[in-house]
Amino acid sequence: MTRIYKILPRAEWAAAQAKGMFEGSAVDLTDGYIHFSTASQAAETARRHFAGQADLVVLAVEAEALGQALVWEPSRGGDLFPHLYAHLSTDKVLAVTEAPLGPDGVPQLGALG
Q1: Which superkingdom (predicted)?
Q2: Residue 105 belongs to some domain of the structure
Q3: DSSP-assigned letter for residue 36
Q4: Of 46, 50, 36, which is closest to residue 81 (Cα–Cα)?
Q5: In the chain, at which end, N or C, are there fewer CB atoms within 10 A of the end residue's CB?
Q6: Residue 69: how many other CB atoms lie within 10 Å
């Protein structure tokens, strides 16, 4: 089993919980899929795309539970990233953890995996 992770603002997660599904953040909606990261990719994703953003949470999801809508695609650097070509049902989320900003302004993800 492979866990994948989605970093997002707490307010977006609260809205998703009210609807029962997460449709995606602005970048997801623009790109046409929900961006996820593996445990080994998440820290770099946080540094590169979420630095300086407070009040974030991290969703943990079992990749296999997402079925064929989850596609592993290469990034510009060639690393394979999980992309979900569907909405994420909130009942697929196994855990939600805080991602407070560290002293360097990068969200701290804690132990993932």
Answers
A1: Bacteria
A2: no
A3: -
A4: 36
A5: N
A6: 13
